[in-house]
């Protein structure tokens, strides 16, 4: 005790409170201090067991986490590779689509539309009709010339 002085009656009262009747009876017959039995390993053994168990469980958990991390990294890498392949396919499809769109725009600007075709068809009909009329006029003219020629031939054959 740190500097407290108790009277003998106070010491006996504290001693009677702190020890059981069996311990008091044993202490009466001996001279000196009674050695107290400590459990073997006691507190120190508990700490060492705890530290050993903690280190083993920590090591196993770190190993498990590393394995899980390795598997997750592999899966992530495979997903990234699949994503790259998919992106490559999509970009090639987009390139083809852009090429087709350019060709379509070229055909639209250079190609004929329905109105152009119908206008051209109308012009061709007018040209054909005009040629047909000219052919008929030419036939009529040729027929007239033949008639005139036959008249001339008849008149000359009569004269001769």
From TrEMBL:
Domain of life according to the entry: Eukaryota
Residues spanning the membrane: 47-65
Alphabetized UniProt keyword annotations: Membrane, Transmembrane, Transmembrane helix
The protein's name in its UniProt record: Uncharacterized protein
């Amino acid at each position: 005790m740190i500097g407290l002085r108790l009277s003998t009656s106070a010491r006996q009262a504290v001693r009677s409170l702190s020890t059981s009747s069996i311990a008091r009876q044993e202490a009466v017959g001996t001279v000196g201090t009674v050695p107290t039995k400590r459990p073997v390993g006691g507190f120190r053994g508990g700490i060492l067991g705890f530290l050993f168990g903690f280190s083993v469980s920590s090591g196993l958990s770190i190993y498990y986490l590393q394995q899980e991390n390795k598997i997750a990294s592999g899966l992530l890498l495979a997903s990234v590779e699949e994503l790259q392949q998919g992106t490559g396919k999509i970009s090639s499809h987009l390139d083809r689509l852009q090429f087709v769109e350019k060709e379509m725009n070229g055909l639209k600007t250079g190609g004929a539309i329905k109105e152009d075709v119908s206008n051209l068809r109308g012009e061709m009909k007018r040209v054909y009709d005009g040629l047909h009329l000219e052919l008929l006029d030419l036939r009529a003219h040729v027929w007239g010339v033949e008639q005139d020629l036959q008249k001339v031939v008849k008149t000359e054959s009569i004269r001769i």
